[in-house]
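debug: dumping io for the single-chain case to check the tokenizer round-trip. Nothing else runs in this session.
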Amino acid sequence: MAKPAATPPEESARFWFPSAYSILFALIIIIAGLTWVIPAGQYQRVASEAIGRDLPVAGSYAPTEANPQGVFDVILAPIAGFYDPSSYTANAIDVALFVLMIGGFIGVVTATGAIDAGIKRAMTRLKGREKWMIPILMGLFALGGTTEGMAEETLAFYVLLTPVMISAGYDALTAVAVVLLGAGIGVLGSTVNAFSTVIASDAAGVPFTDGLILRLAILAVTFTATVAYVMRYAERVKADPSRSLIFDLKAKNEAHFRSADEAAATTFTGLHKIVLLLFGATFAVMIWGVSLGGWWMAEMSGLFLFAGIAIGLIGRLGEKGLIDAFVGGARDLLGVALIIGLARGIVVVMDAGHMTDTILHWAEGTVAGLNRVVFINVMYWIEVVLSFFVPSTSGLAVLSMPILAPVGDFAGVARSLVVTAFQSAEGVVNLVTPTSAVVMGGLAIARVPYERWLRFVWPVLLGLTIIIMAALSLGVLLQGTPT
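debug: decoded output
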């Protein structure tokens, strides 16, 4: 007798966990409270033409006038997360607008029926070989991460890959893992990433090629281990959907990411092929623009706006159909845009309270006089803590490397190893930190609750940390040989 299909349990029966909005707003309140406790202080800074930013000067830390954040600052923090209300300087408004443009673009492409038809055709041809999508896609994202620090750009891929993974018999969590872990492992093992390795090495006063072999080894080992973990989870879910960590959301996610009219998407027409070619070309142009054309959020937003209009016209949606599809798609990602502002608001409150440099100063004193192997591993954990407060890779590089890299000279540890400890720690933390718009935004797009992501990824974090600490320790022991 056939085994009856498992049915998702009622959500109310599960342990309640607050939403991403509640978590982020609670963190804003906590950080604001810490500004009343942690002494305010700042390092002196000097301009660097090579890096294009002001760098803190080691040994120049001094207490400064406290600026504790009150109730009004907490209320304004989500708004300040988008833009500075006093100077009108942009904070996360560009990322939020980019997300809305992606939503509109995807809404138009979906309205043409091309995505549903294309997914069906791909699943038919990949029958029995779906699992190989995972290492191939993760490899592509890792390549983007290690070379150009692929982060915010990945937000465009969640909407695309989530329905693909669901149609392949996996779940939305698998899609998040492919994108977030793929690009994240690449950033963790950065090689020529200008936003991590290059800028950190410049700030530390060493060539970015120093330590390249060790970083390549870390990239290879961590990527292999992570891909194996994701593939194992995906195969388990495909064999038994009830083993999915988001099984109770299965029906809702399938309804959201699959077309309501399945029959309409059955035939893969020539028009669908043209739309999908333009769809793929749009992402190719985005990658070119970011890596070679000097583009950032404004240019990428303009690209998706233009491509959405062009595809809507070619797809014969008509003026009303095009507008409705674009606005509807942007509406679907409005919650993601709000989450991005909340996440950036945490950093705004912390910087306004002048507590970041104080934490860095405490870290500077912590590592003095330690054994070399102990020193580099303590440095890793210091960067882990700092990464939570400063989720920007380039921002933390400029902040911490001019202070902490020279401390390695006194411990007998190469500055390139301190850079490697920095980028590895930042890479690990940015897989889970709620202060990152990339993490919270990606989860919101794929409709994966934050606590489910934590349950999925904690073994990965543990394994990555063990590998990184072992590699850093080996790097210290092998100092004097090419690393």
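debug: round-trip ok. Residues 35-44+76-477 form one domain.
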